[in-house]
Amino acid sequence: MAISVEARAAALDLIDFIDASPSPWHAVASVEKRLLDRGYRNLPESERWRLEAGGRYLVVRGGSIVAFALGTVPLEQSGFRIVGAHTDSPGLRLKPRAAHGAEGLVRLAVEVYGGPILATFTDRDLSLAGRVNVRASEGIATRLLQLREPLVRLPNLAIHMNRNVNEDGLKLNKQTELPLIFGVARDGEDADARFRGVLADALQVEAKDVVNWELAVYDTQQGRLWGAEQEFVSDSQLDNLASCHAGVTALLNTLAPSATCVCALFDHEEVGSESAAGAGGSLVADLLGRIAAGLGCDGEGLRCALARSFFVSADMAHAWHPNFPAAYEPNHRVLVNAGPVIKTNANQRYSTGADTAARFIELCEMAGVRYQHYAHRSDLGCGSTIGPIVASRLGVPSVDVGSPMWAMHSLRESAGVADHAAMIAVLSEFYRHD
């Protein structure tokens, strides 16, 4: 298929964004930089806000970031236009005391975060990224860290010792078979001190000043376009950094909107969203309340505004895989590069209703993009999103949508170049639509 110059540019920008964002905290930093470069201002939650007409602002809480552009129409009359996505992806996280010696090798112990396809972490050039707390003159300081060169590895067991791996699949014990090889053990050396030394060197601090860390395992291979006409994109964390990128790009495309436009990117979706920074916490309700107060809108006015609001929950969707047709609902085969997907589930695993789906269809038609419908097989458990969580906490109408992709929760996922451009287009239409 023919890919436009604009769609290819958007996909390449997505790759740059993902490769600069190997952890939720890096994703927040990447988004924050893009917003600040375009005139957004950072609002500390610990200070009183003074909002200005037409102002554009951002708020950071841990691995979450919310940006908003104030509308030209009074809030009570226009409501909020909210796009939500999540910054975290399933994978492996280091334990607090990760390094330990084992038969001449130093390994790093990990926990499974969310629901990754564990087999995809084997035989990859892995490294570590996240945040590290260090002692500084002003007290404890949090520093972002991305070790760019391959540092650790999870080698597969040879087929000679696992003869049925191709028939039964690779199964890894989460406690005993996931520790990552870090290096050859040195006589008399403390494994933890050695690992702390690596972190200290990278941060240019003393090892004794490394307090603790939250570090994710990531794939050092950069994203690429692929396919006969370079119509596909592959990278880690497409679920759900592609939606984050689309939402932020759409917000930055929106100048002088009539309604107040919000882009809320939450951490911890992959583990249930119940945290201070997650969609199940107070973040979005706190911020909408403070926006209303800053605009002189009282409690009754805020409730009127919420009744006029709409929430688009953007998370990736399962694309039909021709090698596994039995895994899909026959009448809901979602195709890559065939447009954004409206996701529906009768048990409210997705927040979509017929009314909210119709509103999104109208937006797609106005943006000139195709759309698709997805429903999960009735005999398979259906995943969920932040859509039902945010909709229930705010009491606003909501729709769950996403771009189609293959290999969701793999360390290396794939999606369509045209789909990403289409999602940006429809979210841009949503923000500017009265």
Mean pLDDT: 96
Helix % is 25-40%
Nearest-angstrom radius of gyration?
22 Å
**Looking at this structure, what is the CATH superfamily of the largest domain?**
Zn peptidases
CATH class of the largest domain: Alpha Beta
Separate helix tally = 11
* Strand arrangement in the largest pleated sheet: 1-2-3-13-4-14-18-16-17
The tally of strands reads 20
Distance between the termini: 34 Å
Tally of discrete structural domains: 2
Q: What is the overall shape? A: globular
Structural class: alpha/beta
Tell me what the structure shows.
There is one protein chain. With 434 residues, this protein is α/β, with parallel strands linked by helices. It folds into 2 domains: 5-89 and 236-432, Zn peptidases (Aminopeptidase), CATH 3.40.630; 91-219, Aminopeptidase i, Domain 2 (Roll). The chain contains 11 helices and 20 strands. The protein has helices spanning 5-19, 24-37, 75-78, 165-168, 191-203, 238-253, 283-294, 299-307, 354-367, 387-394, 417-432, and strands spanning 41-42, 56-61, 64-69, 80-86, 91-102, 105-113, 126-136, 139-146, 180-184, 210-219, 224-226, 232-235, 260-266, 310-314, 317-318, 341-343, 372-374, 398-402, 404-406, 413-416. It is globular and about 70 Å long. The model has no long low-confidence stretch (mean pLDDT 96).
